[in-house]
From TrEMBL:
Organism: Devosia neptuniae
PANTHER family referenced in this protein's UniProt entry, alphabetically: CITRATE SYNTHASE, CITRATE SYNTHASE 2-RELATED
Classification lineage: Bacteria, Pseudomonadati, Pseudomonadota, Alphaproteobacteria, Hyphomicrobiales
Record has Transferase as a keyword: yes
Keywords: Transferase
Pathway the protein acts in: Carbohydrate metabolism; tricarboxylic acid cycle; isocitrate from oxaloacetate: step 1/2
Family of the protein in this entry: Belongs to the citrate synthase family.
Catalytic activity line of the entry: oxaloacetate + acetyl-CoA + H2O = citrate + CoA + H(+)
Pfam families: Citrate_synt
Name of the protein in question: Citrate synthase
Amino acid sequence: MISGLDDVIAAETMLSDVDGLNGRLIIAGHSLDALAGHTSYEAMLALLLGDFLEADVATITRHLAAARKEVHGYIEGVDAAILALSPIEGLRAMIARLPDGEDRDTAYRLLAAPAVFTPALLRLQQGLPVVAPSDTLGHAADMLAMLTGTAPTQAQVNALDTYLVTVSDHGLNASTFAARVVASTRAGVTSAILAALSALKGPLHGGAPGPVLDMLDAIGTPDRAEPWLAAELARGERLMGFGHRIYRVRDPRADALKNALRQLAEAGAVPADRLALAEAVERSALALLRQKKPDRALETNVEFYTALLLEALGLPREAFTCVFAAGRVGGWIGHAREQIDHGRLIRPQSKYIGPLAA
Ligand SMILES: CC(=O)SCCNC(=O)CCNC(=O)[C@H](O)C(C)(C)COP(=O)(O)OP(=O)(O)OC[C@H]1O[C@@H](n2cnc3c(N)ncnc32)[C@H](O)[C@@H]1OP(=O)(O)O
Ligand SMILES: O=C([O-])CC(=O)C(=O)O
């Protein structure tokens, strides 16, 4: 049966390389280790999109701040129907209101949109006033300020920058493939990003980190991890935050995010028992997965420590996928551009296996 297109190479890219056997990730020519914790999201965008945007970090920073202000204007149009949606569906509905195009202004609006719409929708859903974007803050700091209405600490800004950079691109994952398919029809980059966002939303892709926290809450204490996880696996459930199509070893992003979480913990932003519970769950899950699936390497993926990091930053779990989109949108736009500039219409074949009328 042809199922998940495993091992099919469907694009050439300058954006990232996922080495699943050795657990190495290269983004825009740099190893994740050199980027995560050392690079702002704006600097990451300069690496991913600098040629297309024809801009350096300072110019990108300025244009992105202006774009945050521009898309903030769309908040006025938020209605009760959008507020009744989940944050990721609300974000998708808001992005659908942005004009389509293949130009730089469209790209900046799309880069700004998740960072502006996510905090605004969350605050409106709680009956709180929306916080306008700032002229002076960087992208990560502004996103946090729009969320809480107060200035974030440097440790929080560093943690969010680390997260956004870490998830900014990852080869031809499902959402990026969706973006490239739509871009290949020349429908426009807004349409491509809407397709990508829809793919990201699923629990087997970017929808996993919310359920990771549900799992930690259901387990409650480290001693309950092993029996709880064993019962889930016996019921045929998948453990969220574990397993990956490409990685056969630990996802290098798990360590980058765990480091960022440790730094937040040192700054007093993570309760010690939360970290201890997470580590106990990770240990038990890996041991059980090895026992249950000895022939299939199932390791910790990016979503496990994403959940803990975004929780420590005060984000509600329903909005984790929106924050993922705020980072991945840079990669999606890069892939859409590559497809437009160098690709053709993507149109594979299907094999008919249905009946033939006599
Ligand atoms: C940003 C990201 O997208 S990272 C991924 C986030 N998603 C998750 O964490 C959800 C949990 N993980 C999973 O569902 C999977 O590991 C995926 C979807 C990420 C990758 O799956 P695939 O490469 O398609 O592997 P596939 O679905 O073929 O699974 C292979 C086997 O391992 C099992 N398996 C895979 N992941 C898990 C898991 N997390 N828990 C338990 N069993 C698992 C499957 O049940 C399957 O068993 P079977 O052969 O007996 O049917
Ligand atoms: O690469 C994948 O299949 C999923 C993933 O980890 C990502 O998109 O970050």
